[in-house]
Design a protein that fits this description.
The complex is a heterodimer.
Chain A (H helix, E strand, L loop, with lengths): L2 E10 L2 E2 L4 E6 L2 E6 L7 E4 L4 E4 L1 E6 L12 H10 L2 E6 L10 H14 L3 E6 L13 H7 L3 E2 L9 H14 L4 E2 L11 E2 L2 H6 L3 E2 L2 H17 L3 E3 L5 H12 L4 E5 L1 H5 L21 H13 L4 E2 L8 H4 L16 H10 L6 H16 L15 E11 L18 E11 L2 E5 L1
Parallel strand pairs in A: 1-5, 1-6, 7-8, 8-9, 9-10, 11-14, 12-13, 14-15, 15-16
Antiparallel strand pairs in A: 1-2, 1-3, 3-4, 6-17, 17-18, 18-19
Helix pairs in contact in A: 2-3, 4-6, 6-7, 7-9
Chain B lengths: L16 H17 L14 E6 L5 H12 L3 E6 L11 H10 L4 E6 L4 H8 L3 E7 L5 H15 L6 E5 L6 H12 L3 E5 L15 E3 L2 H5 L4 E4 L5 H4 L6 H8 L14 E3 L12 H4 L6 H21 L6
Parallel strand pairs in B: 1-2, 1-3, 3-4, 5-6, 5-8, 6-7, 8-9
Helix pairs in contact in B: 1-5, 1-11, 2-11, 5-6, 5-11
The chains are: A alpha/beta, B alpha/beta.
């Protein structure tokens, strides 16, 4: 049976449709867009709300296997669907680490059992994420990994990183680097005025930029691609901008919390503001917004990092890093970027769907067009809503945004032509 | 009596100039109590004050305990492991257990910055910060200010130099706030690796030259140098530190004649401060200790006067 979405304003990375359009879906694929009369189809009335391609998150932590008390593949999928994500890339820092085919198969099996949306595992660059030996990248690819990353840490050894980049190029897998020089990053928050004030050990931006600069040089020399996870500092952006101008194949992402909050948020010692990379200065936040606007930063990822209440209810020094993000990503991005006129809705779609699809090499996702997958979300662009703790679907509630007003309300998420979430 | 409007003392920057002056006035009155034959007033009779310490501390804990006892409060000591993780009990769990025993005030010392804030946010009893990580040590700064005021008659316009490991010093951070607020010209001096970033924004001068810091100083406050700083590669050697930043009688000669030599203790004799100076006529180190009791009596007394929380 076919599905017909009636009277939707279609928002793609290329623009917003002037008039409401109908979208006909058959067997999980968009077959026709226009004025459509299809008496047999199941009708979804869009009422001139925005229809976007399903969001794609390059960076989230599902915690399974090993830390199911924080999140499971099932709860993570539900949180993603509620947040408008139809494809998510989960990070390999599970226990055990995603560094062999067996683990990948296990994750894909569970994701398939839950269904609803697409889960794409990323594999570790190095075995056990130890930074010592390369993982079997070809095997990981064959098992279903769509990217490689040692997220949570950088590959510290430059020679090993060189080989990783060369090998990943052969395996045709994007290499996504978490940029952090571990010798200089031992701290709790951004280094500067506020870390001095709060007596917390600082993490300077050079902890990030040193690796960004190194990897840009590696990518230049090796003529390979590199993708940078959760870029947090103005200086990293300057390096990326210059690298791109020189034709080096760099892509990079930013997270909503890094453009919605500054380091000043740490002042109350709310451990939900402890993230890695840390919340940075006003100038860094502004630079991220401008870089999303001018294209230096290609996309927005969540770095959804669930932690249980008892793990976060600790001294700031002892609490783990990370905050959840799947359910707030769109609302924060609309509030901080679209509402404040940094980017348009179309650019937002590019950042949250089309660009991630391009980076992953997904031909049939990230756009609304005939022949593309019917991964779609329906959004009320002007509706403001309060992010309330009781409504959080993720198993963990570690968010500093609880109680805040966000904008852009997801009414419906559809994946493969099936409704997987409805407000 | 000043209008004390807080139920907690978390950091000195929560206090206005008038608040600080009020503590000092109150402390003056309480200092006299400690010189009496019977060193006790009934102000806090029936109140319970808990000392919750996760770091070894002799003088601060003793000082708070004496202060509370001289005000007739009941006191008890709880030593907690440095990280509540070790016992699988969260910090809050433990604090809530203490709260459940109906105590009135918690004096907390913790190696992690922000712990007093977290407790104050969650608990009904008042919270006094007795030192949190590298962040804040408000009663130490109050007793230092009290001592300077007592000895030199005023704070305004004085050149106060703080010498040593500023980066890791909660004593320095609290003193900077209080002294700048009261109009002192504060100079920080230490090796470049131990000066925190952007500290100048708090209205202080920074110098790496001890002579500059000492020259014409009314007060030189030395900080304890932890020997671990060398292992952590902040310093080439303790030897070089002593040569460049250790205060001696010779190096003090360009200071004002009546310069006060201060130290929050415990002193590493022969490292940040020579024994000769520590015991010399300019040293007020033991008076700081005496005044500590009076200042903590004042703080306890004033906090019990008001119940509502700051936040």
């Amino acid at each position: 049976m076919s599905t017909l979405i009636k009277k939707a304003i279609i928002v793609s990375s290329k623009g917003i449709s002037k008039d409401p359009q109908d979208v006909l879906i058959e067997k999980g694929v968009i077959v026709k867009i226009g004025k459509i009369a299809e008496p047999d189809a199941k009708v979804i009335e869009a009422n001139e709300k925005y229809l976007l391609p399903g969001l794609i998150d390059l960076h989230c932590h599902l915690r399974e296997p090993g830390q199911e008390h924080k999140e499971t593949i099932e709860t993570g999928i539900h949180a993603a669907a509620k947040g408008g994500f139809t494809s998510i890339v989960c990070m390999p820092n599970t226990n055990p680490v995603i560094d062999n085919a067996k683990i990948v198969e296990g994750i894909l099996k569970e994701a398939k059992r839950v269904g609803l949306i697409h889960v794409f595992p990323s594999g570790a660059i190095t075995k056990g994420q130890k930074g010592e030996d390369l993982s079997d990248m070809l095997e990981l690819k064959e098992a279903g990994c769509v990217a490689l990353t040692d997220d949570g840490r950088s590959v510290q050894n430059s020679q090993l990183m060189r080989h990783a980049m060369e090998y990943a190029k052969m395996a045709e897998l994007p290499l996504m680097e978490h940029c952090e020089d571990a010798t200089i990053s031992k701290g709790m928050m951004n280094e500067g005025f506020f870390s001095t004030l709060l007596g917390l050990k600082g993490i300077p931006d050079i902890a990030e930029t040193i690796i960004v600069a190194r990897d840009i040089e590696l990518a230049r020399y090796l003529k390979t691609k590199i993708h940078f996870c959760h870029i947090s500092s103005r200086r990293s952006i300057e390096l990326i901008r210059r690298g791109k101008e020189q034709g080096i194949q760099i892509t990079a992402e930013a997270c909503p919390h890094h453009f919605s909050l500054t380091e000043a948020a740490v002042q109350g010692f709310d451990t939900n503001t402890k993230v890695n990379p840390p919340l940075r200065s006003k100038e860094d936040v502004e630079a991220i917004k401008l870089a999303l606007k001018d294209g230096t930063l290609d996309c927005i990822s969540t770095d959804h990092a669930p932690h249980a209440q008892e793990e976060k209810e600790l001294e700031f020094d002892a609490a783990p890093v990370g905050m959840i993000g799947l359910e707030t990503a769109l609302g924060l991005s609309v509030r901080e970027l679209v509402d404040s006129k940094y980017i348009t809705w179309s650019t937002l779609v590019d950042k949250m769907s089309s660009a991630p699809a391009r980076i992953l090499g997904f031909q049939n996702k990230g756009e609304i067009a005939e022949g593309k997958d019917a991964d779609l979300i329906l959004v009320d662009p002007n509706k403001e809503w309060i992010f309330e703790k009781e409504t959080i679907v993720s198993k963990s509630k570690n968010s500093p945004f609880i109680g805040e007003k966000l904008k852009g309300f997801i009414e419906l998420t559809m994946c493969n032509g099936k409704i997987v979430y409805q407000a | 009596m000043i209008g004390w409007k807080y139920g907690d003392l978390l950091e000195l920057s929560d206090l206005s100039r008038e608040d600080i002056e009020g503590v000092i006035e109150t402390a003056k009155a309480f200092k006299e109590v400690s010189t009496r034959d019977i060193k006790k007033v009934p102000a806090l009779r029936g109140k319970t004050v808990v000392m919750l310490f996760s770091e070894p501390s002799t003088r601060t804990r003793l000082s708070f305990e004496l202060a509370a006892k001289r005000l007739s409060a009941d006191t008890l000591n709880v030593t907690v492991s440095a990280s509540s993780l070790q016992k699988g009990e969260t910090l809050l769990d433990m604090a809530k257990n203490i709260e459940a025993m109906n105590v009135d005030m918690i004096v907390v010392r913790h190696k992690s910055a922000g712990v007093p804030q977290i407790l104050a946010r969650e608990l009904k009893p008042g919270v006094i910060n007795a030192g949190d990580g590298c962040r804040s040590h408000p009663t130490q700064a109050l007793l230092d200010i009290f001592t300077i005021q007592e000895k030199l008659g005023h704070i305004d316009g004085l050149k106060v130099s703080i010498v040593g490991d500023i980066l890791h010093s909660r004593v320095a951070r609290s003193n900077i706030y209080g002294l700048v607020k009261l109009g002192a010209k504060v100079t920080l001096c230490g090796p470049s690796t131990l000066i925190p970033p952007e500290i100048e924004r708090q209205g202080v001068n920074v110098t790496y030259k001890l002579e500059e810091a000492v020259s014409d100083a009314d007060v030189v406050m030395c900080l304890r140098l932890q020997r671990e700083r060398q292992e952590e590669k902040y310093l080439p050697s303790i030897r070089e530190y002593v040569k460049s930043f250790g205060l001696t009688k010779e190096k003090l000669k360009n200071a004002k004649k009546e310069v006060l030599v201060m130290h929050p203790g415990p002193v590493n004799r022969g490292i940040e401060l020579s024994a000769e100076l520590a015991d010399g006529v300019n040293s007020v180190i033991l008076e700081q200790v005496t005044n500590g009791v009076a200042v903590r009596m004042a703080v306890l007394y004033l906090l019990f006067g008001k119940k509502e929380k700051i936040s």
